[in-house]
Request: fold
Amino acid sequence: MDLPPTPAQTIGPFFGYALPFTRGAEIVSRDAEGAITVHGRVLDGADQPIPDALVEIWQTDAEGARSTAVGTIRRDPVTDAVLGRDGTAFTGFARIPTDADGHWAVHTVPPGPHHPGATPYLAVAVFARGLLHHLYTRIYLPEHSSLLSADPALAALSDRLSTLVATRETDRRYRFDIRLQGPGETVFFEFR
Amino acid sequence: MTELPTQREIDAAIARLSALPGGFHPHRDYGPYRSSVLRHPEQALAVVRDPEAVELSGPVFGVTDVTALDSDLTRGGPGEPQGQRITVTGVVTDRSGKPVRGQLVEVWQANAAGRYAHQVDQHPAPLDPYFTGFGRCLTDDDGRYAFTTIRPGAYPWRNHDNAWRPAHIHFSLFGTAFTQRMVTQMYFPGDPLFPYDPILQAVTDQSARERLVATYDHDLSVPEWSLGYRWDIVLDGPSATLFEDEDL
Ligand SMILES: [Fe+3]
Reply:
């Protein structure tokens, strides 16, 4: 049985009161030992910031394990208030709306290899007003980038491969801009 | 103020593009939806066929992430919101028909007058202090979700002159894999605004468009209380359920 899928539609401009949640940008607490920050802007084809985009991150933990822990948007059963993560379970998921300058930031740990010899990465989904169907990309950290051109799936990207590698700004902070269109357009993926 | 395209111009563009090859999803590059022009990639997507890709798993949600009240958008205040009370329910499956169990479904929508509880929404229609406008629930063992809400109103937007969005509820869904992530919109049957709306018409295949429209189901209507709509959702994209089971 191969059912036809339900079509995607744009997230529109008004998701901001519904989808973002308390500490959505903190896969780990920003002052946790070993925490890194990855941040950047979402930009359109005219190099203008996109202030109504939503960036989601899914990644392995530092050892390379994929989490099955719940509680990313933990709620108070009495008041229904969002409590946020309990600070112990690693759920591997972040959701960050861009600000008025198109900027987003996630606080996390460097991902580990998801199988022996794998190049670790942060999986990214991008949603925005004006984007009719979301896009997937990946963030590779520069310390792992030497392995990338050996990956047969990525080698064909040649000079565009650099759009998938974050830039180290300080010891614990990395920059990664997402360009939906134009010169330096980020590589986006389709999974089959 | 910049001159907006007319509805007639948008209609002509929609008619021209209706000849595009169909497909299951909207075209990301769809000129009649003007915001899409600078917000779609021009390079081909890179195809990944990796059974060990991190994206073949995904975040998991559970009972701590929702409360029982979250699925009722009419319980936001001390009184009942304005408008027609409805229930919306359906099952979430993957493309093989397997139910997506225990996963997060989130919704948001305008109120009965067509106004969002969002400060950017400048439509001069009344806000409703008794309507939250957003909700969430987990699918059950059959993949079923259910919400109690009110029927949203159509609302104007500035894509073109006299542009109106057909009434819709925004949905956000998770499957068993990040590749199955989905954000979409549910529409109501028989809405006369369908042919004028570039966001819906960006899905150029008619049968695919029809999959975005809920069905009125009289058996789901509750006497003296609410009207019932059914909308089943099929998530696209591969997953690695077997791989995950081995991991557990
Ligand atoms: Fe809307």
About this structure: Residues 152-155 of chain A form the longest helix (4 residues). The two ends of chain A are 17 Å apart (CA to CA). Residues A 12, 14; B 165, 168, 170 surround fe (iii) ion (CB under 6 Å).
